[in-house]
Design a protein that fits this description.
Chain lengths: 383, 636
């Protein structure tokens, strides 16, 4: 692992985190990725104060769950120590496009020079597409970008990112990784019906499909296939199985997760641009699980293209929380498939995320929902 | 059907992304970002015709019709293939390039014409764009071109407006600021002083105006050149600004003259003086170090005059004049001095300062000066010559006497310029005199020369140049030098006189008897004549003392074989006394008043005046002169 060390800290206390950091520092680590579980109910004041007191680079987030090899944790924290002093750019006021661009431009030289970037962001921030577009417009396609959205499963936005400035919300952390990252992305959701034309929308609020109230169209289509009515269950219990997807020019799908109903409108994670064509998707456990394995295999293939052996490395997984909610206990199968595809990796860890981010094949950075991102961290360039 | 909707939706979404802003750059940036996402592109690039400033234009000269890069999204992306393939003389939008670029089979590059002034190039990794997608882009490019055209026209208009606004701002700035130092100029300082005065009067407070003039600044210009002088002025301006900070204002009036306005902050005069004294200490400290002017470190000091306001109901100009007068007084006290305005001490100085400024203005045009000529007569009443006398038709004063302004001109160095003009004009007038038939006895025109003028290294050369330019004989000129000029002569001055004498120019001693009356210089220098001062001629018939002095002077002149002439002869009795003592040449109102050249020419044509006529002439001349300016002594 070339000096990278992963620790699971089961006890949810500052003292336990501090002890873990101290231990990793004694082993030569200089930067730390800290993934924490929301169920541990961290006191923001205490955690912020501790983070601010650290004199080493730290970045991370609070997630609904954590991944370690084929297991997922509802409690505890994972700390990955890096031997390098990693450069971290904090972008605040993420929902304000006008404020984002100057911050990115100010750090453009650093970001452009990095071979890859790990991006952790507030997953419940509105206008994330604008941030992603700005990031690509300024940083370009030279760096491979991977990452996931932090946040809480109740979908209420509050501080969820962890950094040297404490706990942050409406922000993103851009971490310049020293080596090339190989990555694979997949979702496994399949077309059920469509296309539908987005005739009215504003950001992540989908108001109309085919000139009709969006919820009505969605309800009609879903109920037609699942045999349940939305009146019988809460909205997300049904909707988690039937995401929407924006159709790309090549016929590929960018999944958009409807998470709430607001009158006749649907609130989604991620934007649905007006005039886009969307499809209704359906999920089946085997397909989703298989796609996660494909994402891991794609990462391995890319790693080999870079001239690296996929084994003896570190894999970071951002697997969407809504996949876990959909799969239920079968999420362990998905993780097992990923582990199996990454056989030989010394460490496989990550988080159940609220939205995922990754460079597409064309280079453009995409914001995804209900997807799996597997990133194999490349070795640091030898001095 | 499914794909049709997809294509329609792509076309619609991209169409809606056109023209989201009037400004070209943000409009294209927005369009590019949406195109990137919607078409799965790697990068988008725009190239346009540009003007010399690098701004996109719709037309450019045929020889320069080359597309230049304008925008790429992402900003650091480079185009795999440049859009030369899109010929700009084709009027329709076409997709010219759909090429594999040799960098990998999955890389695609497409260029679209934007009118006849630009292109959009898109790049993609992975699958090529489907043919229907390319087709749907073509009409969009027409719309995008129209939008670009509107934006470019809009920006051209904005640039024109901005240029005009900037020009207006520049004009306003230049109107109120000094070009060299960027400090407020006289106009702005006077406006601020006006406002300060008003405020001071309204609030019962006191302010001060400091007038600073650099000591010996002219030396810097003369020795190191004006470029270094200018740099020094800028350094002085910066130094003064730093000293006064936000508590006042520094301006440059002209040349090496600066002012510092201390606004009306103090409740009483004593408090204000404390503040001003603090500033003076700071100024002295700052100027104790040398200032950097280019490669030179130069040490300069300011002389400072301070006027406190309000003082009575004096206007801003009045305050400035007082500060100026106080500065002049400070300069007289020595270098690097400061002085508050004091009305008792400064009254005379103020008049001199004012005269100096008026003289400076007059010398800029020279049309306010004129030469009059007073005839010189021999025993037979024949006109043997004339003395050139300067007259100043000042728009500010009623015929100021030379006795008033010549000393000011001499002290301030303006005499050089004024004397040069007198010399040139006198030569030209002699030329005119020659054009008329002069009496046979008329042989010279006397010109007064000041010491500073005579001692100038270029004097002889300049005089000979004037003589040559006028085409006259040097024998027609006599230079009248005062005793003090001669007594201070040095070896160079003696050689100069010899050169003049050799050319034929006569040297005369003016006002003889009033100075040293040294025999030594009369015998050593090539002096041809002496002029007995009018103060000895006065009442010569009844004043035994004057008679004795004049008798001695005449004896001295005869002994040295010098010509003699008495000036200020007003009565027949004085003339008779002079004749009795042996002086046979005269000048004064008894014979003629100083006259304009034309009048002199007219008089020279007439027969010699009789004694009775001469007496009448003297009476009229004296009375006229007294009426014109009772305080001044007329040229007699």
């Amino acid at each position: 692992m070339e000096g990278r060390r992963l620790l699971l800290v089961e006890e949810a206390s500052i003292a336990a985190l501090d002890a873990a950091i101290t231990r990793l520092r004694s082993e030569g680590c200089r930067s730390f990725l800290l993934l924490a579980c929301e169920a541990d109910d961290w006191d923001p004041a205490l955690l912020s104060s501790w983070l601010e007191s650290l004199d080493v680079a730290v970045f991370g987030g609070i997630f609904p769950g954590l991944v370690q090899r084929a297991q997922w944790h509802r409690h505890g924290s994972l700390i990955m120590g890096f031997p390098e002093r990693l450069e971290i750019v904090v972008v605040r006021r993420l929902s304000d496009r006008a404020a984002v661009e100057p911050q990115l431009l100010a750090s453009a030289a650093l970001l452009e020079a990095a071979p890859s970037l790990m991006v952790l962001f507030d997953g419940l921030c509105p206008h994330l597409e604008a941030f992603v577009e700005s990031l690509y417009a300024i940083v370009g396609g030279h760096a491979v970008v991977v990452g996931g959205g932090a946040g809480h499963g109740d979908l209420v936005q509050r501080p969820c990112l962890l950094g040297n400035a404490g706990m942050l919300e409406d922000s993103a952390l851009l971490v310049a990784m020293p080596g090339v990252v190989a990555h694979g992305v997949a979702h496994g959701w399949q077309r059920l019906s469509g296309p539908f034309l987005v005739t009215r929308s504003q950001g992540n609020v989908l108001a109309e499909l085919n000139y009709q109230p969006a919820f009505e169209v969605y309800r009609r289509e879903v109920e037609k296939h699942c045999g349940e009515t939305f009146a019988d269950t809460d909205f997300f219990a049904t909707a988690k199985t039937f995401p929407l997807a924006i159709e790309g020019v090549d016929g590929d799908f960018l999944v958009r997760d409807p998470i709430k109903r607001d009158g006749a409108a649907l609130i989604c994670v991620g934007e649905l641009p007006q005039n886009a064509t969307v499809f209704l998707l359906k999920g089946e456990a085997p397909t989703l699980i298989a796609s996660a394995g494909e994402a891991a295999l794609a990462a391995c293939r890319e790693s080999r293209q870079h001239g690296h052996a996929a084994d003896a490395g570190v894999a970071v997984v951002f697997d969407c929380i809504s996949r876990a909610l959909f799969l239920g206990a079968a999420i362990n199968d998905e993780l097992a498939v990923i582990e199996s595809a990454l056989a030989g990796c010394e460490e496989i860890f990550g988080a159940l995320s609220l939205g995922e981010i990754a460079s597409s094949r064309a280079g453009v950075i995409e914001l995804m929902n209900k997807s799996t991102v597997v990133a194999l961290l490349g070795r640091s360039p030898r001095p | 059907m499914n794909n049709t909707l997809k294509y329609l939706s792509i076309q619609h979404e991209l169409g809606m992304a056109i023209g989201t802003s009037l400004r070209l750059q943000p409009m294209l940036a927005t369009f590019s970002r949406i195109a990137l996402r919607r078409l799965g592109l790697t990068s988008v690039h725009f190239h346009f015709l540009k003007n010399v400033e690098g701004e996109p234009v719709l037309q450019s000269p045929a020889a320069e019709r080359r597309l230049e890069h304008f925008l790429s999204v992402p900003r650091n992306a480079t185009a795999w293939a440049l859009p030369e393939a899109c010929a700009v003389d084709v009027s329709t939008v076409v997709c010219d390039a759909r090429q594999r670029c040799g960098q990998g089979a999955d890389r695609h590059c497409y260029s679209f014409r934007l009118g006849d002034f630009g292109t959009m190039t898109v790049q993609r990794i992975g699958n090529a764009l489907e043919a229907p997608v390319i087709e749907l882009l073509k009409p969009l490019m027409i719309r995008l071109a129209l939008s670009c055209q509107a934006s470019i026209e809009h920006e051209t208009l904005l640039q024109a407006v901005a240029a005009r606004r900037k020009a207006e701002e520049t004009i306003v700035f230049q109107l109120l600021h000094d070009d060299l130092t960027q400090l407020p100029n006289r106009r702005q300082m006077m406006q601020r002083l006006d406002a300060g005065l008003l405020r001071a009067r309204g609030e019962g407070r006191f302010g001060a105006l400091l007038f600073l003039d650099l000591d010996r600044f002219k030396m810097v210009n003369d020795t190191l050149g004006h470029a270094i002088g200018d740099l020094l002025l800028v350094a002085v301006a910066d130094t003064l600004k730093a000293i006064v900070g936000d508590d006042g204002m520094v301006g440059r009036l002209s040349g090496d003259e600066f002012v510092m306005l201390v606004d009306a902050v103090a409740g009483d005069e004593a408090q204000l003086r404390l503040r001003v004294d603090g500033l003076l200490v700071a100024i002295r400290a700052a100027f104790s170090d040398a200032l950097q002017a280019g490669e030179h470190r130069l040490h300069v000091t300011p002389s400072i005059g301070i006027a406190i306001f309000p003082d009575g109901d004096g206007a801003a100009e009045h305050i400035l004049r007082r500060a100026d007068t106080a500065m002049y007084q400070a300069k007289l006290a020595g270098l690097n001095c400061a002085m508050y305005y004091n009305s008792h001490l400064s009254a005379g100085l103020e008049l001199r300062r004012q005269l100096e400024k008026e003289l400076q203005l007059a010398l800029a045009a020279m049309d306010q000066f004129e030469l009059h000529y007073q005839g010189q007569y021999n025993l037979a009443g024949e006109c043997t010559g004339a003395e050139a006398l300067i007259r100043w038709h000042s728009p500010y004063r009623d015929q100021p006497s030379p006795a008033l302004f010549i000393p000011v001109a001499e002290e301030t160095g303006l005499m050089l310029e004024l004397g040069r003009w007198v010399m040139r004009r006198a030569c030209a007038d002699i030329r005119r005199l020659h054009a008329h038939r002069l009496p046979s006895a008329f042989r010279r025109v006397s010109i007064n020369v000041s010491a500073v003028q005579f001692n100038h290294p270029d004097f002889v050369e300049a005089l000979f140049a004037d003589i040559d330019a006028a085409g006259i004989d040097a024998h027609w000129i006599a230079l009248e030098l005062t005793e003090s000029t001669l007594i201070r002569n040095n070896h160079a001055a003696a050689s100069r006189m010899t050169v003049l004498r050799e050319r034929g120019v006569e040297i005369a001693v003016d006002d003889f008897g009033t100075g040293y009356s040294s025999l030594a210089y009369l015998s050593r220098l090539p002096v041809a004549s002496i002029k007995i001062d009018q103060s000895f001629v006065r009442d010569l018939d009844s004043n035994a003392g004057n008679r004795a002095i004049v008798g001695t002077i005449i004896a001295l002149g005869r002994a040295l074989d010098l010509d003699l002439i008495a000036e200020g002869v007003e009565t027949t009795a004085e003339r008779a006394s002079l004749e009795a003592l042996g002086c046979h040449n005269y000048q004064g109102f008894l014979f003629s008043r100083p006259l304009p050249l034309d009048a002199l020419i007219g008089q020279l044509r007439k027969p010699s005046p009789t004694t009775a006529l001469a007496e009448a002439n003297a009476a009229v001349g004296a009375a006229a002169a007294m009426r014109a300016n009772p305080a001044q002594e007329p040229d007699r």
